[in-house]
Write a structure and sequence with these properties.
The complex is a heterotrimer of chains A (about 290), B (about 400) and C (about 325).
Chain A lengths: L2 H32 L6 H19 L3 H25 L9 H23 L15 E4 L2 E4 H23 L1 H11 L1 H6 L4 H23 L9 H16 L4 H21 L7 H12 L10
Antiparallel strand pairs in A: 1-2
Chain B lengths: L1 H15 L21 E8 L6 H20 L4 E8 L4 H13 L5 E4 L3 H14 L3 E3 L16 E3 L4 H13 L5 E7 L2 H17 L4 E8 L7 H10 L3 E5 L2 H14 L1 H4 L2 E3 L5 H7 L8 E4 L9 H14 L5 H20 L4 H8 L3 E4 L2 E5 L6 E2 L2 E9 L2 E10 L1 H4 L3 H9 L2
Parallel strand pairs in B: 1-2, 1-3, 3-4, 4-5, 6-7, 6-8, 8-9
Antiparallel strand pairs in B: 10-14, 11-12, 12-13, 14-15
Helix pairs in contact in B: 2-12, 3-4, 5-6, 8-10, 12-13
Chain C lengths: L7 H9 L1 H17 L6 H26 L8 H17 L4 H23 L4 H21 L1 H4 L12 H4 L1 H24 L1 H11 L1 H6 L4 H27 L9 H14 L6 H19 L3 H15 L3 H18 L1
The chains are: A mainly alpha (about 290), B alpha/beta (about 400), C mainly alpha (about 325).
């Protein structure tokens, strides 16, 4: 094992972790503020990919098409999320976690079949935009430009979230709501709209993750089940509701899997659960302090 | 009392499910109804989830065969479908429902190999002919094979051997083996390697990589394989992973450095979604192309399929289509709807198909089909297989003696 | 959360009516004993599947409804029970009865391992750890080809033929279900069960009176795993096939829905939910390939409008009716 292989594998792991982060950041935000464990987050991710596909069908496969789709699809998912929150979730905030979770699970089932009705069962694929095709040389490895793009987008999203949560009034309200909802209500702020906003933001992040992954994968039913367990593991390991915890555990997961390919190639299926299980046993309440 | 109400509710639902009838011993044993002119096929397949596209292709092919048969005055083939959701317990549930309640004569399906094996076991116990047009595990007609199960698609043993035949003609020595970490992937690769070692002495294995089904980023795997510089890479992957993996080959330019072989690399199910993103120069075997062989029979099939479904047929369409044709001819040959006679007729039956002659081998009930190998290339602005070579069925199917020996082991 | 869980007080009231209830239950059992002579073979098979699933759902409810633990991956123990029988019977020379006895203990052992780590956590963390560790078991089963047959599973498990006929498997599953329910009911009503319920309603207070809550919860978790393992054995008797999909997380979600549908606060609710869900899936699936959509809609309606479940709703109505009579 030479250094170049190891280093390039590490870098690939980081870019892999970025998608994990974008998706799980949305999930953990919703956890933190709404205290809802949203199983439908994976469905929103899947919708993001499918909507990006449809957007590009309409916009054409030109260079602008991809970027516009990257803009439109997550927004569309955010709107769907908003409708879910206003139409369903807000009626059950007073219920036990289990009920809330089961409600979001019902959406998993419903969206799964709706996607089949709307898009059919054929495999779909999106082209990587021209500017991001091909690969670049890193040490002795050839890495896809698209991975480098993800390496860029991930930190941007993290930065944007930080700015929103810590530098804007709305973001501060979100954090305050996460810490103590009743206090926020007492202070005369309308926390229900904060809930709606955060849920839409979570949906936007899920949609963004789906739209970003779309050009590199096969877009089909089942994408939701693949990601949701990962996202849950990452969020819990990171500390429920803690965005930075999600960032750290995303990167651990991404790099862990990527290096696992080098050292324990037979364990690809087992590895994510193993990493999460071990981390949870060592730190039962997550790597960073939970927002709860 | 509410408990009795509860029981009443149960009974009501049972009646609703249509199973309140008290026909004793129905469904099991052979139905020798002389009046019956139609055969009823119960189809169990995966219509939900990532593999549904194959189930749809197979079903459409089968429907086409049923329609054509009826038009030509052949036996009338009726069918019902059930969705097993890629779950083995569902597959068994439906097999029992189809046989005991729906009273089907024949079972067919499923892309889920575990489901196929479970249904096959039930079919064996209840003497119901079962045509497998989706499950590719070599156990189905191999170690777990029996009188009532037939496979109308190349299984992993055939696929692996076909790959070995193709690769043994090439000068590569150092191989890397990889694939999706599930039975299909391992079985294709193991069969490939066992055959290649026999056909091309001196080959060596540089290593193996296995990724989970549904992997979203193949870069770490490709990077590792590249760093070890093998002469060739042989991959066992299928379904959605196939599309994603081909894409990863394009983005990383892997096929330019290392020759890659993947079964179904040239299949329409893989190439159609990829469009211009499909990599050129990937080698692969495939049992069917809409454009090859360029015969009137194939043209007629493609035209009929296009007319009915407004798309080109991929490999699974032909599996479903052949299944229908085999069944129709077996009934005609048997001259009866008796299940035992249909099984007798199916054994060793040869029919003309769009790809030439296909035979259900008498000894193990595995279909004998030619296989085509080629390389992906852009021909006239469209990705398809280039330099197609036909591998005759006899060359790629494991000998019947070998297969029967695997059954004895149990 | 008194709306969704019956309280200890309510359970006492139930005891007062226990004579009527017992007679009704005995009637119900007798009814099921003579039922097969009126049923078609397919209905017999469905009933056996329902009995098996009912045991699985009831075992989950011990932890979920009575223990108040958010256990998200119960199907693991079901799967381990089934796999234990399958592996013991195909890889060793053990007879069926021996394998069937060992299997629930194997499931209980896995439950002990998962529970050991999980009960240290509360609420969602507990749920997430059961999910993560459960999926780890799934992944091992999926991957350990030599032992488990990988995703192809194990088929044609040689269960003795005396047990596999439709009639025999009906009676076997019925008898095992009834006996298991009796034991589970005794557990629920025992001091152990009462402490479990008390801990559900108020952990600090139960802890403060000197009860080791975690140990009780772990014990409940292991017992639940044991009975799920028995359900796994019954599954093998009926279907004689096993594959990893049996212990994937969506199977656990299905079992959760059964408990919710019947009523988590009631002892027989999960059985009712299991019966309804099995029947519905087999009826709806005949007409459409969109069963999961239907299931999703059902679940949505249940959560929004009937969170106490069908039996919970009915017994709630009965209780308020009897209260009125008293007034």
């Amino acid at each position: 094992m030479d250094f170049a292989t190891f280093a390039s594998q590490f870098l690939i792991g980081l870019s892999r972790g970025m998608i994990f982060f974008i998706v799980s950041a949305g999930l953990t935000l919703v956890f933190g503020v709404l205290r809802v464990s949203n199983f439908a987050h994976g469905s929103l991710y899947m919708l993001g990919a499918f909507l990006a596909y449809t957007a590009i069908l309409w916009l054409g496969q030109g260079e602008a098409g991809f970027w516009l789709a990257l803009l439109i699809a997550p927004l569309a998912v955010a709107v769907i999320a908003l409708v879910i929150e206003r139409g369903l979730l807000r009626f059950i905030y007073k219920r036990e976690h289990l009920m809330q979770m089961l409600l979001t699970y019902s959406l998993v089932l419903i969206f799964g079949d709706l996607v089949k009705m709307v898009w059919g069962s054929d495999y779909k694929s999106l082209p990587v935009p021209q500017a991001l095709t091909g690969s670049f040389h890193f040490l002795e490895a050839n890495l896809p430009v698209y991975n480098a793009f993800l390496l860029l987008i991930g930190p941007l999203v993290a930065l944007g979230l930080w700015f929103f949560l810590f530098r804007t009034h709305l973001g501060k309200l979100c954090r305050a709501t996460a810490a103590d909802r009743e206090m926020v209500d007492v202070l005369g702020q309308n926390s229900t709209w904060i809930f709606a906003l955060v849920f839409a933001l979570g949906g936007w992040l899920a949609g963004l993750g789906g739209a970003l992954i779309a050009p590199t994968v096969n877009i089909a039913m089942g994408m939701d089940a693949n990601i949701i367990i990962y996202a849950f593991l990452i969020v819990v390991v990171g500390g429920l509701g803690n965005v930075w915890g999600a960032l750290i555990s995303s990167l651990i997961m991404g790099v862990g899997e990527s290096l696992g390919v080098l050292f324990i190639p037979d364990f690809a299926i087992i590895l994510p659960y193993l990493i999460a299980g071990v981390l949870l046993i060592i730190r039962p309440s997550g790597l960073l302090r939970s927002a709860w | 009392m509410k408990k009795l109400g509860l029981a009443g509710l149960l009974i009501a639902s049972l009646a609703l499910s249509g199973c309140g009838s008290t026909g004793a011993g129905a469904g099991t044993g052979t139905t020798t109804n002389k009046e019956q002119k139609t055969v009823k096929v119960g189809i169990i397949d995966t219509y939900t989830g990532g593999a549904a596209t194959y189930a749809k292709d197979a079903l459409d092919g089968f429907k086409l065969a049923a329609t054509e048969t009826a038009e030509k005055g052949g036996p009338k083939i009726e069918f019902v479908t059930r969705d097993d959701e890629f779950k083995v317990d569902k597959a068994t549930n439906w097999a029992k429902e189809l046989v005991m309640r729906e009273r089907v004569d024949i079972l067919a399906g499923t892309i889920n190999s575990a489901g196929s094996l479970a249904v096959s076991q039930y079919a064996k116990e209840n003497k119901i002919p079962f045509i497998v047009w989706g499950g590719m595990s070599d156990k189905i007609t191999g170690a777990a094979g029996h009188r009532y199960v037939f496979s109308t698609l190349p299984n992993t043993a055939v696929i692996g051997k076909a790959g070995a035949v193709q690769m043994s003609k090439l000068p590569y020595k150092k191989y890397w083996l990889a694939g999706s970490d599930y039975e299909y992937g391992h079985s294709v690769v193991n069969n490939f390697w066992a055959n290649l070692e026999k056909m091309a002495p001196g080959v060596s294995k540089a290593g193996e990589s296995w990724w989970r089904v549904g992997e979203t980023d193949f870069t770490p795997y490709i990077n590792k394989i590249r760093s070890t510089k093998p002469d060739a890479l042989v991959v066992g992957t299928g379904g959605g992973d196939m599309v994603a993996f081909m894409k990863a080959i394009t983005t990383t330019g892997l096929a330019k450095d290392i020759p890659v072989w993947v079964h179904t690399a040239t299949d329409l199910s893989t190439l159609a979604p990829l469009g211009n993103e499909a990599p050129e120069g990937v080698m692969g075997t495939n049992p069917y192309f809409a454009y090859y062989p360029d015969t009137p029979e194939n043209k007629a099939f493609v035209d009929a399929f296009k007319k009915a479904y407004n798309r080109e047929p991929a490999a699974f369409a032909i599996y479903g289509y052949m299944s229908g044709k085999f069944l129709a001819q077996a009934i005609q040959k048997a001259g009866s709807m008796d299940k035992e006679k249909i099984v007798d007729a199916l054994e060793g039956l040869s029919i003309d198909t769009p790809v030439g002659k296909a035979t259900l081998r008498k000894e193990d009930h595995q279909v004998m089909l030619p296989m085509f190998y080629g390389t992906t290339a852009k021909v006239g602005g469209k990705m398809m297989a280039k330099d197609i070579v036909t591998l005759p069925a006899e060359q790629i199917i494991p000998s019947a003696a070998e297969v029967l020996k695997s059954r004895e082991k149990k | 959360m008194s709306c969704s869980y019956s309280t200890v007080r309510a359970e006492k009231r139930v005891q007062k009516r226990s004579l009527v209830l017992r007679l009704a239950l005995i009637g119900l059992v007798l009814f099921f004993l003579i039922l097969p002579s009126f049923l078609s073979p397919y209905a017999l098979y469905l009933m056996a599947t329902i009995f098996t699933t009912a045991l699985l759902a009831t075992s989950l409810n011990l932890v979920l409804g009575y223990g108040g633990l958010m256990h998200l991956h119960h199907a693991v123990f079901y799967g381990v029970g089934a796999y234990a029988v399958a592996i013991l019977m195909t890889k060793t020379a053990l007879p069926f009865w021996a394998a069937a006895i060992i299997a629930p203990f194997a499931a209980a052992l896995v439950a002990l391992l998962i529970g050991w780590f999980s009960v240290r956590l509360r609420g969602l963390y507990f749920g997430m750890l059961t999910l993560a560790l459960g999926q780890l078991v799934w992944a091992i089963v999926y991957r350990w080809n030599a032992l488990t047959g990988g995703d192809d599973g194990i088929h044609a498990i040689p269960v003795p033929e005396v047990l596999t006929s439709l009639n025999a498997s009906y009676y076997l599953t019925l008898i095992v279900l009834v006996l298991s329910l009796l034991v589970l009911f005794a557990i629920v009503k025992s001091p152990f069960g009462l402490i479990l319920t008390a801990a559900r309603d108020n952990i600090p207070r139960t802890g403060s009176i000197g009860v080791n809550v975690k140990r009780h919860q772990l014990a409940a978790f292991v017992i639940a795993g044991f009975f799920a393992g028995i359900a796994g054995v019954l599954f093998i008797v009926i279907d004689r096939s096993v594959a990893p999909s049996l212990l994937y997380w969506n199977k656990s979600a299905e079992v959760l829905i059964m408990c919710l549908m019947g009523g988590m606060g009631t002892f027989l609710g999960p059985s009712l939910g299991a019966a309804l869900l099995v029947l519905l899936s087999m009826v709806v699936g005949v007409y459409t390939e969109y069963w999961l959509l239907v299931l999703g809609l059902i679940l949505l309606v249940l959560v929004l409008f009937l969170p106490q479940g069908i039996l919970g709703f009915v017994s709630g109505k009965l209780k308020s009716a009897s209260r009125k009579e008293v007034d």
